[in-house]
Amino acid sequence: MRVLLFLGGALLLVGVAWALLVAPIELFQGAPQRIMYVHVPSVITAYVALLVVFVGSVLYLSRRDPRWDRLARSAAELGVLFVSITLLSGAIWGRAVWGAWWTWDARLTTTLVLWFIYVGYLMVRAWAPGVRGASAAAVIGIVGVLDIPVIHWSARILRTLHPQPTVFRVEGPALPAGMLIPLLVNLAAFLVFFSALLLLRIGQERTLDALSEALEEDA
Amino acid sequence: MKAVRLLVGKDLLLEWRGREIVSVMGLLALLLAIVLGATRSGADAAPSAMWVTYAFGATLGFARTFVIERDHLAGLLLAPLDRGLIFLTKALANWLGLVVVQVLSLPLLGALFTEAIWRHLPALALPLLLGGIGLAAVGTLLGALVVQARLREALLPILMLPVVLPLVIAAVGATAGILEGLPLRAVGSELRLLLAFDIIFVTASFLLFEYVVEE
Amino acid sequence: MSGGNLPGWVVEAHRLVKVFDYRPVLRGIDLRVRPGETLAILGANGSGKTTLLRLISTLLAPTRGSLTWFGDPSAPPQATRRRIGLVPHESLLYDSLTVRENLVFYGGLYAVAPSRVESVLDEHALAPLAARRVRVLSRGQRQQVNLARALLHAPDLLILDEPYTGLDVGAAGRLTSTLRACAARGCAVILTTHDPAGAEALDASVAILLDGRLTGVGAAMGLNRSMLCDWLREGRR
């Protein structure tokens, strides 16, 4: 795990430096466009975290093994973090380039709701700690994940202002290589960092659970 | 099927004797409509006022049904009943309560916002129906969750509203279109979304319910 | 305690463990009850009596260990539940419904016809109360109705949680004779109680729940009363 932390930190340093100093400046948007190197990786990581929460929740409900619960709740904590980074960086970028802090297009709306789903999950855990809340939170996790595509669908019916996908397109990424590579480096950095933090958090929770178990046994 | 009739009958009978849920939901809905109407009335404000009212009314009413049931749930769990069946009957009872609120609110909404509501009632029935079912399904699952996990009732709106947001968006869109006089075909994408939402979440809630009530 | 499950045991528990949030409430319960047997479980408050009953009545799942009903480990849960009746500590009756409405409802869940409900009402001398709302009944009357509710479907295993609490002498006597009649019909009865005297009247075997384990299963008659009280009072040995 420590290896991952160092690797993540190193990648991040390289990635940020590359993004700020080396990567070309985009024609229309100027310097603020560099926020993309933080914004895009963080949104991808946030959704990866959601996937982890989903897997952990489903496996917890079917196997009742506390390890899956620890996985799910640690991922949810990190999920909130990365969604918050996404929303903030997105808002700053939007203000700088479009003049608006917020719009109601599909992807923003979906990501905002994702934030609330994570927060709801964590509130359930906070107010019903232990096994009692574990099943409840797992249900929230599953319902939340099912909701995300539906939200996206509904918001798309409304309107779309967000830049169209330039990386995840059927034809292949449309970013020039000069930008794509630092983006991928940063993405790797974020994901490695996420994994490291996840393992750290799970380890902490495992220790806490073992401590509680030992204390109760003696009582 | 006999069990369904039995369970729903019991819930309706209890509600009739106590009239607690419908009155709470109904009064809240009416108050919300009035508050929203006082600030901005007129035809364009109508759809969102309507659905905000139903969504919030639902979040308050649906926790109550399980609070009432709290001590009695053991009796249902002891019986040789499929847990999913308990969910369906509860959701059905909740939905019927919501329908009553919807019906009662229509005169007031028409008076406060726009008479177009009354004129287009047959067409409006479709989003009202589909939206109500979705709210009932999610509300029943999450209402049971909040009560069974001994969480504060205030948590239900926080959990429920993000989940039903797409339903509200689609319902408002469909309602707005219908009130403008568009044919149902024109709001087809919104109606399709409502239907999909209902199918997804009725199924998911049915399957997840047993994890919510078992200890 | 062998690992096999003989047909003939109404319920058999083997090394039953229940842990709530790392707090072990039951640390390994071994239990076997025959048809027609009455078992009284004594224990101080908080000793886990209710948890044990909820496990035996299928409301809770064990953390570890096995629990088998009617000698059939692979029976579907619905079939098992059909043969069990529980009278928990809290009343399962709906306050705003009448006695009859409550019994018809619960009976219906077990596929019991309304006509049978009427005969049960008569059997338990509840006919005069049948049309009253449960809200107005006294504690003892509610207890009677709850008992009738649990017996509607003629269960093979009847479980009662502290049924004698708060009952006057007359009501307690009626309860005892009802339970003895059940046992005589072949139903197994498991109850928890604070009071050893009730167990004696039921001609029950007695077990003591202490520190999450069951000890001292034996006939109620001839139990050393004062030793029992000391045990219960002190909690830990």
What does this structure look like?
The complex is a heterotrimer of chains A (219), B (215) and C (237). Chain A is mostly helical. The longest helix of chain A is centred in the last third of the chain and has 42 residues, at 177-218. In chain A, helix 3 packs antiparallel against helix 6. Chain A has helices at 2-22, 36-63, 66-97, 106-127, 131-158, 177-218. The relative contact order of chain A is 0.17. Chain A is 79% helix and 0% strand. Chain B starts with a helix and ends with a helix. In chain B, 84% of the residues lie in helices and 0% in strands. In chain B, helix 3 packs antiparallel against helix 8 (155-179) and helix 5 packs across helix 9. Chain B is built from nine helices and no strands. Chain B is globular. In chain C, the strands form two sheets. Chain C has a six-stranded mixed sheet, sandwiched between helices. In chain C, a hairpin with a 2-residue loop joins strand 8 (205-210) and strand 9. With 237 residues, chain C is α/β, with parallel strands linked by helices. Chains in contact: A-B, A-C, B-C.
**Helicity of chain B, in percent?**
over 70%
Low-confidence stretches of chain B: none
Output the radius of gyration of chain A.
19 Å
Based on DSSP secondary structure assignment, what is the total number of beta strands of chain A? 0
User: Roughly what fraction of the amino acids of chain B lie in strands?
Assistant: under 5%
Percentage of helical residues of chain A?
over 70%
In short:
The complex is a heterotrimer of chains A (219), B (215) and C (237). Chain B is mainly α.
Keywords for this structure?
heterotrimer, A: 219 residues, mainly alpha, 6 helices, 0% strand, B: 215 residues, 9 helices
Write the layout of secondary structure elements.
The complex is a heterotrimer of chains A (219), B (215) and C (237).
Chain A lengths: L1 H21 L13 H28 L2 H32 L8 H22 L3 H28 L18 H42 L1
Chain B lengths: L1 H17 L1 H20 L6 H24 L3 H6 L4 H30 L3 H4 L1 H28 L6 H25 L8 H26 L2
Helix pairs in contact in B: 1-5, 2-3, 2-5, 3-5, 3-7, 3-8, 5-7, 5-9, 7-8, 7-9, 8-9
Chain C lengths: L10 E10 L2 E11 L4 E5 L6 H8 L7 E6 L7 H6 L1 E4 L11 H11 L4 H10 L15 H13 L5 E5 L7 H16 L3 E6 L2 H6 L3 E6 L2 E7 L5 H10 L3
Helix pairs in contact in C: 3-4
